[in-house]
Design brief:
The complex is a heterodimer. Chain A has one domain: Metallo-dependent phosphatases (Purple Acid Phosphatase, chain A, domain 2), CATH 3.60.21.10. Chain A is 28% helix and 22% strand. Chain A has a 6-stranded mixed beta sheet with strand order 5-6-7-8-10-9. Chain A has a 5-stranded mixed beta sheet with strand order 4-3-2-1-11, with helices on one face. In chain A, β5 and β6 form a beta hairpin. Chain A is globular, with a radius of gyration of 17 Å. Chain B starts with a helix and ends with a strand. In chain B, 32% of the residues lie in helices and 28% in strands. Chain B is of the alpha+beta class. In chain B, the strands form 2 sheets. Chain B has a 3-stranded mixed beta sheet with strand order 1-2-3. Chain B has a domain of 63 residues: Histidine-containing Protein, Chain: A. Classes of the chains: A alpha/beta, B alpha+beta. At the A-B interface, β11 of A face β4 of B. β11 of chain A pairs parallel with β4 of chain B, so a sheet runs across the interface. The structure holds fe (ii) ion (2 copies). One fe (ii) ion (FE2) binds next to loops of chain A.
Chain lengths: 241, 93
Amino acid sequence: MGRVRVGAVGDVHLDRDVVGRFRPALDDVAEHADILLLAGDLTRHGTPEEAECVAAEFGGLDVPVVAVLGNHDYHGDRVTEVTGILQAAGLTVLEGEGTVVETQNGNLGVAGAKGFGGGFAGRCATAFGEPEMKDFVRHTEFSASLLTKALESLECDVRVALTHYSPVPDTLQGEPLEIYPFLGSYLLAEAIDAVPTQLAIHGHAHAGVERGVTPGGVRVRNVAHPVIRQAYSVFVIDQTC
Amino acid sequence: MKDEYLLAQVQRLLAEDGGELGIDALRRDDTLVLRGEVESADRCREVERRVADAFPELTILNELTVPRVHKPQESEELTGRPAAAGATSEDRH
Ligand SMILES: [Fe+2]
Ligand SMILES: [Fe+2]
């Protein structure tokens, strides 16, 4: 078992005005990474036209591309079409599923789910009161349960969790405290900590910071494009599950 | 209009009509300063135009930036547990 190189970026928010901007940095991605993860908010409004832009920009690369969707990708209410367009371009789109990619240095498993908000332990929303409030919290609970299921399903050397929303408050520093409940949920961290995981990747927090850690000690990296300020970041994992 | 209502209107206008979230607006006298990140120069101009159209009485100071898209110049080595060794950056390429 050797070193697996994970490339990752989120929040590229593609539309026609961005197509071609990332591509020059992606053409030799295999020299830098064994896989490229996309941490949601691939589009601006979640339209099929924007999904075609994602397909053009991230399709046909020489490493496998594995994505989750973000809140922007849900805005147009056309998730099935958007997902289909990305899949037709060769991307793997995860929502409560896992996928294993064989690399020269071992099998890398990625479990993906969009996640949702709700906030963090001691300050979190609870499923109490109005139906709208219960629905909000239950969507997060459901998403976290999908992530657990996906992580458990993986048989691999290295396990990575991929979400759009953040599992920890650490990577939100720089965001206004008042919006933390819309940026992530501790339930995602709890799901990640329940299964041996080497790395948790997320996006969504454009004004946050790169590094954090779950209560269970799993490294968390916010790869939102405005945070990393490069085409993608690379993480080299040198340990086994 | 009270500043707070104005800033809330700007934020909702940009998010709900334009899909741009996380743009910071702050008012200095008759000037509205826009700060944050957008993914293209087109969007930078578009955001300014939307706000200028909605609030013609204000001068817009556009401080939006577009994050770069260069190749990674280094990778982060993840070895051991975070509590122990910690992470180091090193240039692999
Ligand atoms: Fe985003
Ligand atoms: Fe987002």
